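INPUT
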Amino acid sequence: MNQPSEAPEPLPLAGLMVLDVSSFIAGPAAAVTLADFGADVIKIEPPGEGDPHRQNYRSPNYPRAEKQVNFPWQLDGRLKRSLALDLKNESARAVFKRLVGRADVMIVNFPTPARERLNLRWEDIEPINPRLVYCSLTGYGESGPDRDRPGFDVSAYFGRSGILDAARYEGGPPGLSLPAQGDRATAMTLVAAILLGLRRRDRTGKGGWVGTSLYANGVWANGTSAAGALVGARLPPRQSPDKPRNALTNLYRTRDDRWLQLLMVRDDRLWAPFCRLIGREDLLADPRFADREERKSRAAELFKELAPIFALRTYAEWERVFAGTGIPFGVIERLGDVVEDEQARHAGIFSDTTNPEVPRTVNNPIRLGFATPRTAGPPPSVGQHSAEILRELAYSDAEIAALKKTGALG
Amino acid sequence: MAESSLPLAGLRVLDVSSFIAAPAAAVVLGDWGADVIKIEGPDGDPNRTIMNDSGNYPKAEVNYPWQMDSRNKRSLVLDLKKSQARAALDRLITTSDILICNFPPPVRDKLRLTYEAVKAVNPGLIYASLTGYGETGPDRDRPGFDATAYFARSGLLDAQRYEGGPPGVPGPAQGDRATAMTLVSSILIALVHRMKTGEGSWVGTSLLGNGLWSCGVIAQAALVGAFLPPRPPPDRPRSALGNIYRTSDDRWLQLTIVREDKVWGSLCAALGRPDLVDDPRFAGLQERRTNSAPLAAILREAFAARDCAYWSKALAAQEITFGVISRPQDVPDDPQATACGAIVETAIPGMPRTLSNPVRLSFAEQRVARPAPALGQHSEEILREAGFSAHDIAELRASGAIR
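OUTPUT
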């Protein structure tokens, strides 16, 4: 298995055994984060094809890499060991029970009917290991009319929560989400849920069920609009950049066809320095824009003043004008530039791997002063560690061979 | 203050942060039992007035964003630029477990609120840092908001557009709230570390890092030189079975069929077009991809013929994965939103329901939200708990250090 290498002291989650009985992205990405910080993660997959996420790089909504590099699997399978186990097979069940008996955490994302069929509900697992933290991910929750419905992030996190409806310009089609965007945000909630379960176990000796749903995470991310909706307030449709509701929090096109994002929320304090910086001190004396209220109610007029000014210079020039002034601004960055962004390196966002296919990867966003995430190597092939893991569970070579023969083990 | 059975009961959190991502993390800790003290300057957290200050917030009588981001906190007003106030904060730091800070680094230096400075006061303290762009580097001092740091700088908004259209639109605080869960996870890992070693620590995250993590698939693709071509509009999808369709009542249905080999037949049945199964243009995965435009045209016409309720039933009957693009106003009345625990009742007059944080635990319920504090509502109570005498407090008040 992958041992922590460069860490100055044991990683904070070293010694934890995690069973990743999940597929696709949110559950597996939570398991990756636990592995990044030292947990021994065993991915339990069906023999043969394994996790269907292994095939996602062929999806038409995924970028196509040269030489067919399976980058999404590399990202979500890193630092795991693979055990190919057919949970529908009776003799696999005995192996699984033995693993559960030794594990600390188990992550499950099967829809509820499949959990019942496979005896994978918490009430099935608790008698085997009452100290286990059982972490459940669903699309829509554990009860209610849609609990059995398979959920994906584009439907459960983005569509159902109202995010996509809100993410549109007036009159346009709903907004777009990116592959697995909500899944990966949800993974951080799963990590928090698991850690709360472990904390409770440390204090009481008891494991327990913890979990979250894609839907709840979408609503949480969309919380400001959702909290507004709860009191009957509705977000007006977003006007396109040339008809802003507030000209000081808007997009402006620069001379080199980039989009500069102006985000002057505190325009009480920043209005005067802003006018000076853009060379329009005259606006300070303009009674139309004397205070915040007027600047907001005359957003269209203010936009007409500002748009031609922003179009005079390139984004790089504007960056020099605003740098260090406290005026919040940004650019609509292109991903091709991001991977070379010096600041991204400083923020610890990308790291080198020992995997020649994918020399750099995306770190999980948690930074710790006392530990660095493990270096990623190549993710496992289906069942790559089946025999090794069973030997650790005291299965003999003959037993392992017999299990392989029945198809229970891949 | 805190119910003892909750997993974070007994922990004291100093929320020395403003706006949304970091305060929302403090809310989550409070939901699970921590005693959260919000430390604000004399003007208060600007998030108190953001509903009216920002043109992008729905307006309401009740200050719902502030209620949501401050529930179950106590407010202490300290003017940290005054030395007496800064000294009072040190006294609170000695009896606290966690400090959450989102000041830009130069302000931390000025206020002696760097990790090094507070560690000297309480080595067992967990210091959780939120920045826009990280702790070092050319942009470390730059104020970061979620629209800039999480969405724009990460490449998310550029990727979230239809071919030829303007950049995508983030919802208010959408990236902030997702980032809050990362900050919570980092704090919980630090608690594991403290339990093992007895030591406090620095932990943190950045909005930029969270934006890139959430678009990790395409960021990882970019790292190997692969890029998503601009998304064609809904009438020219790359895959007709992974596309959105308008129904007769002007709602949008989302098909998200991942393993289409298994459900192609059921989809044709749901559409009432069993003939399509034998249509050679759509015989296999490859054919359906190649002919995605004609297939999308057929689907567009079919879906436009009936309303959303009809299609919801028809697709569910065939076990086809789909979603309806909800409008935010649909969420409060969605029974599933309550079933999954997203919407809960409060003890706040004028705001009977709110959003729970998305973590669910079988062994504990989140605290019921009570009204967010008025500015400085608990200043006196908190200082008395920290051992300040009535005389000390009166002096601090007279100097303007507290309110």
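end of record. Chain B touches chain A through 156 residues (CB under 8 Å).
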